[in-house]
Amino acid sequence: MPVITTPQSFNEEDLYVDLAPMSGHRLLLKCEGFNFAGSIKLKAATEMVESAERTGTLTPDSILVESSSGNLGVALSMIAASKGYRFVCVTDSRCNLATRLMMEALGSEVHVISDHRDASSPLAARLEYVRRLSARNDRYVWLSQYTNADNWKAHYRRTAPAIARAFPRLDVLFVGAGTTGTLMGCARWFRDWHRPVRIVAVDSIGSAIFGDPPGRRMIPGLGMSMRPPLLDDAYVDEVVRVHEIDTIRMCHELAKCGFLFGGSTGTVVSGAVDWLGQHTTQDLTTVAIAPDLGERYLDTIYHNNWVEDIYGDSALVSQPHIGN
User: Fold this and answer.
1) E strands within the chain?
2) Whose CB among 121, 123, 283, 322 lies 3.0–4.6 Å from 253's, allowing a Cys bridge?
3) Domain boundaries defined on the chain
4) What is the DSSP string of 53-119?
5) Alpha-carbon gap, residue 7 to 151, rounded angstroms
């Protein structure tokens, strides 16, 4: 029976969902949302905060500040509350209402950048706001998840080894791409493993991570409007790109089976199922990483009016995807 004194002390590491009955493929989904932060971002947040404390960058008088589309902001809010830090999260209008309310409930300040006309993207506007805020007061400590090596080291030290313990004959790993912390940490670890593992990155269409022009993206989480500084293409074997409409359809298909996952997970599963559909003759052991759960998407991905307003009346028409 686990007994903890801090919320970041608990994280379910060994829970997998077998998607074969639903997808028709041998695909195991590593569920990373069963912790008090509700997502895989708890690992990166914990690693970055503890590293900053060890180096003396973060002191009791510090004010944490970070740009986040949602999940890292929740994780840092939880850790800040646990450790007694003030935390300011800078986000934009794509951040789900439930996520903003959760951060505020944990005592954080949430600054929503709604006007980015003077910046190339909402992310650029957020980063510029954080830079200005940090420049005004040296008490602000910006962990910078986009450039901080502790982001990927968290997954090098924890996520990848946990997958290897569970699946010593792993062939393919599907990882969503955002800051690319999870992707780079896992890819680096498996590069040195006892057998080759194919690393398939899953990205959203409209993301510029792998050199595509940036476009409209309405679902927070995966994708970026620029190339992430942490990314090293040499560790990525293949990239699968997923339309947001396919993300939404996958989330709804999984929900019909009783699994309520978030948008990032819907993207990863959609990309993995598509990839496996083109490699059906191979007997592969495959794992996909599910970064989040679905409760924070009830007013977006799981709200029919929101989906139809943004993607059209046919967005939720059933497609021959899972189980066909």
Assistant:
1) 16-18, 27-31, 63-67, 86-92, 109-113, 140-142, 172-176, 198-204, 238-242, 286-290
2) 322
3) 7-31+158-311, 41-142
4) HHHTSS-TT-EEEEE-SSHHHHHHHHHHHHHT-EEEEEEETTS-HHHHHHHHHTT-EEEEE---TTS
5) 19
pLDDT band at 195 (very low <50, low <70, confident <90, very high): very high
CATH 2.70.50.60 assigned to domain 41-142? The reply is no
Distances (CA, A) of 272 to 17, 42, 275: 14, 24, 5
CA pair distance 83, 141, nearest whole angstrom: 15
pLDDT, one tens digit per residue, over 208-239 is: 999 999 999 999 989 999 999 999 999 999 99
Quick one: tokens of 135?
A: 């420049």
287 is written with which tokens?
Answer: 């794992």
> For residue 227, what are its two tokens?
């190339």
Place of tokens 């999940």: 71
The span from the CA of 63 to the CA of 69, in Å, is 19
Measured between alpha carbons, how far is 120 from 214 in angstroms, rounded to an integer? 10
Place of tokens 């009830």: 298
The tokens describing 184, both together, are 């780079």
Cα 253–chain centre separation: 20
Q: What would the two tokens of residue 62 be? A: 């510090």
Q: What are phi and psi of 46, to 5 degrees?
A: -65, -45
Which fold does the domain 7-31+158-311 belong to in CATH? Rossmann fold (3.40.50)
